[in-house]
Design a protein that fits this description.
Blueprint lengths: L1 H7 L10 H16 L1 H10 L3 H29 L1 H26 L4 H51 L6 H17 L1 H43 L8 H40 L4 H11 L5 H18 L1 H27 L7 H39 L19 H11 L2 H4 L3
Helix pairs in contact: 2-3, 4-5, 5-6, 5-8, 5-9, 5-13, 6-11, 9-10, 9-12, 9-13, 10-11, 11-12
Length: 425
């Protein structure tokens, strides 16, 4: 009995004061069982914790960069398809609220889609017609003003600080004409290349229009189909992030169109009052340039100043430059903070770098799409990092306020609330 009780008695745990002895014994048994492998594991564990964390972050960061690079390469390789789809998505963010409003007014969705597209085509066609007719009507006056301005420039070159002789000016003109006439075959090749480019542009425009129709008519179905490739466990989170990203795109496009209209109207009226010819075409150029933040406005303004310098002289160019600077200050300090708000507010350095990358990847089209893509990424990533688990149907993708994560919306409501409402009862 005694022996059986002694055998059945469980092993007594080591005393608490012998922790160091237990660790040494366990380590010895581990080395004896593992042999050389235990030494390797001990060498791996001897690496400082911060170094291991840095290594883990490094390979994950490199993997993300490689994935982004592969995606960018695929989009660049398929640019003939990716660019029309991107432009269609950009335009759909502008017209989707109109289609949604018409549907709420009991208009069939197919008819609402047709109405939105027809309205867009009418607006674009009207602007193009106005620009072309204005240019045709202003050509005689513009030729006279340019002739007079060229005469003034010629006199300044001869009598100004350069003191160029008439023979030198004539040699410069002859060289210019000779270089143009001597490269007739090159100009012919460029004309053929331009014709081919125009054909490609028309094809991409038709693809963008076709894609736009489906985005407006069944955009929600396209999005639900895309979500099928996402694992079920994180599908709701990705759905919420995508809705917030599209909400930021809606807010960005709406604000950009409003800012472009204000820039075009104010600068157009200013250069018209100064007497600069082609005020309407220049206003149209400024409107288009406003869709490329910072750089587009500067380039379009430079064209207006150059036309004023050639047609009306140095004083008129200075006045136009002052008008441009004033309108740009109004845009950056009043219009953009008020219209864009906190949802898609981006640092100017991020905007310039995004445009530079867009130009490098896809030229002017890349510059046009770079900032909207950055805005969508900002809202989507912010949602993935800060949003709690929630029902995706509670996020309205057509509401600009939905572009911010839920905690940020709560903070904004607290900041916007009056002081008496924030005070405890």
């Amino acid at each position: 009995m005694g022996d059986g009780q002694a055998q059945d008695r469980p092993e007594r745990p080591p005393a608490e004061g012998n922790d160091e002895t237990v660790r040494v014994m366990a380590s010895g048994r581990h080395r004896a069982a593992a042999g050389d492998g235990g030494a390797e594991r001990n060498a791996a564990h001897s690496v400082p914790w911060r170094v291991r964390v840095a290594a883990a972050l490094s390979w994950r960061f490199l993997l993300i960069i490689a994935s982004v690079g592969v995606i960018a390469w695929i989009l660049g390789y398929l640019s003939a398809v990716a660019i029309p789809v991107g432009i269609a998505l950009l335009v759909s963010a502008l017209f989707a609220p109109l289609v949604d409003r018409l549907v709420r007014w009991k208009v069939p969705r197919s008819l609402a889609t047709v109405i939105a597209i027809v309205v867009g085509l009418i607006v674009v066609g009207g602007i193009l017609t106005l620009v072309i007719t204005t240019i045709a009507a202003s050509l005689p006056q513009l030729q006279q003003q340019i002739s007079a301005s060229l005469g003034n420039i010629n006199s300044w070159l001869q009598r100004g600080p350069l003191h160029l002789s008439p023979e030198q000016l004539q040699q410069f003109v002859n060289r210019t004409v000779g270089s143009i006439s001597g490269n007739s075959s090159e100009w012919f090749n460029r004309a053929l290349s331009t014709a081919t480019t125009i054909g490609g542009v028309l094809t991409q425009a038709l693809l963008a229009l076709f894609t736009l129709i489906f985005f407006l008519y069944s955009g929600s179905q396209v999005w639900r189909f895309t979500l099928r490739i996402v694992p079920h466990d994180v599908r709701d989170q990705v759905d919420v992030a995508g809705r917030r990203g599209f909400a930021s795109l809606v807010s960005y496009v709406r604000a950009t169109v409003a800012v472009a209209c204000v820039d075009a109207v104010c600068i157009g009226i200013g250069i018209w009052l100064v007497g600069v010819p082609l005020a309407v075409p220049l206003a149209a150029i400024i409107f288009v340039g406003a869709f490329i933040p910072i750089i587009g406005a500067v380039a379009a303004g430079a064209v207006a100043v150059l036309v004023a310098l050639v047609a009306n002289g140095f004083v008129a160019a200075l006045i136009v430059l002052a008008i441009l600077v004033g309108v740009m200050q109004l845009e950056s300090h009043v219009l953009q903070p008020f219209l864009l708000g906190r949802a898609v507010r981006l640092h100017p350095l991020a905007v310039v770098l995004a445009i530079a990358v867009g130009v490098e990847v896809s030229g002017i089209t890349g510059a046009l799409l770079a900032v909207p893509i950055l805005s969508v990424i900002k809202s989507a990533v912010g949602s993935l990092l800060r949003d709690p688990s929630m029902d995706p149907t509670g996020v309205n993708a057509l509401r600009p306020k939905s572009a911010r994560p839920l905690p940020d919306q709560v903070e904004d409501e607290k900041e916007d609330a009056p002081d008496d409402e924030q005070a405890p009862a």
